[in-house]
Amino acid sequence: MIGVGRSKQNLNVVDRPLGKGKTEVLLSAFAFLFSELVQYNQTRVDNIAELERRLEDAGYAVGIRMLELLCHREKGNRRETRLLNILSFVHSTVWKSLFGKVADSLEKGTEHEDEYMISEKELLVNRYISVPKDMGAFNCGAFVAGVVKGVLDGAGFPARVTAHFVAVEGQPRPRTTILIKFSEEVLQREARLG
Amino acid sequence: MAATVYNLFVINKSGGLIFYKDYGTHGRLDTNDSLRLASLWHSMHAISSQLSPVGGCTGIELLEADTFDLHCFQSLTGTKIFVTTESGTPGMENMLRLIYELYTDYVLKNPFYEVEMPIRCELWDLNLAQLVRKDGKAGLTGR
């Protein structure tokens, strides 16, 4: 440990401040790693639904850890307990830490009370990915959906989270929408809390 | 003078054509001809580097004919990208590098692309079309 004073060196590891960490990695490095992750899982599945599930599982593990880390770093060891607060935590804090920017939009579903949508014009994981026509509506954003699910589950807001392509008028590329459907008990609790 | 591209080829390291596009102006080729030309160029390129009187030659970079120029770019892995253009078109070296950049981004980073196989990637087509417009003119100048 170069440049670290003696007194600091003697500090117990738990007494040292939590490092901020290096916040950025090379996009190319990430793109290749993610591409390999998809290819690895692709060789181990029989159908697209299975692939989607495996990507989601991989993201889920990231989400659980992100929640833990960000509650420590940004929230002073507190986590959100209200529905809208946890959603805006995902939309801004989690997104900023993972993708370096706040998500493009956070909306409430118009048809169902328990549905919320986070939309991105160009999701970082999809930046270089062209899904072949024969794979239908498959979206690698399933990984990000898994991350969101991990965060929400960890915080006590069980939900079903899925990623979808949504065509935008006047744009050659569809945007990705992360659809969040909360479990019944979450909404009941919200209603009780008032 | 604006660069005018007639055809664009990408060949893999064993000489197979993995991408072909013509820009509808001159020298349109049918599927068989494009395949033949691609593998012919692969062999000529290999022979030229062997025949070169100077050591360390990597192959033909520019072939000047009466009616067109052929510019070739070879990547470190042996993938070759080459274009036929109007004679005397400047700045093609740079253009080929930009095309290679698109190839590494939108083809190689795509998990659904199998290396050495024909390129079918929507984003590659989209970004290539931005770089070389439909009529074969360079689209993004001074990038």
Description:
The complex is a heterodimer of chains A (about 190) and B (about 140). Chain A is α+β, with helices and mostly antiparallel strands and about 190 residues long. Chain A has one domain (about 25-194): Muramoyl-pentapeptide Carboxypeptidase, domain 2 (2-Layer Sandwich). Chain A has helices at about 5-10, 25-40, 50-75, 85-100, 140-155, 185-194, and strands at about 105-110, 115-120, 160-165, 175-180. In chain A, helix 2 packs across helix 3 and helix 3 crosses helix 5 (about 140-155). Chain B is of the alpha+beta class and about 140 residues long. Helix content of chain B is about 35%, strand content about 20%. Chain B starts with a strand and ends in a 12-residue tail after the last helix. The interface of A and B includes residues 35 and 37 of A.
Spatial strand arrangement across the major sheet of chain A: 1-2-4-3
CATH homology-level superfamily of chain A: Trafficking protein particle complex subunit 3
Please count the beta strands of chain B (DSSP E, at least 2 residues each): 5
Oligomeric state as shown: heterodimer
CATH secondary-structure class of chain B: Alpha Beta
Strand residue content of chain B:
15-25%
Instruction: Tell me the name of the CATH class of chain A.
Output: Alpha Beta
Order of helices and strands of chain B: EEHEEEHH
Described by the principal axes of the CA atoms, the overall outline of chain A is: globular
First and last CA, distance of chain A: 52 Å
CATH topology call of chain B: Beta-Lactamase
In N-to-C order, the SSE pattern of chain A is HHHHEEHEEH
Q: For the largest beta sheet of chain B, what order do the strands appear in spatially?
A: 2-1-5-4-3
- Biggest sheet details of chain A: 4 strands, antiparallel
Low-pLDDT stretches of chain B are: none
Number of helices of chain B: 3
Query: Which percent range fits the helix content of chain A?
Result: 40-55%
Count of DSSP strands of chain A: 4
Q: Return the average pLDDT of chain B rounded to an integer.
A: 88
- What Rg of chain B do the Cα atoms give? 15 Å
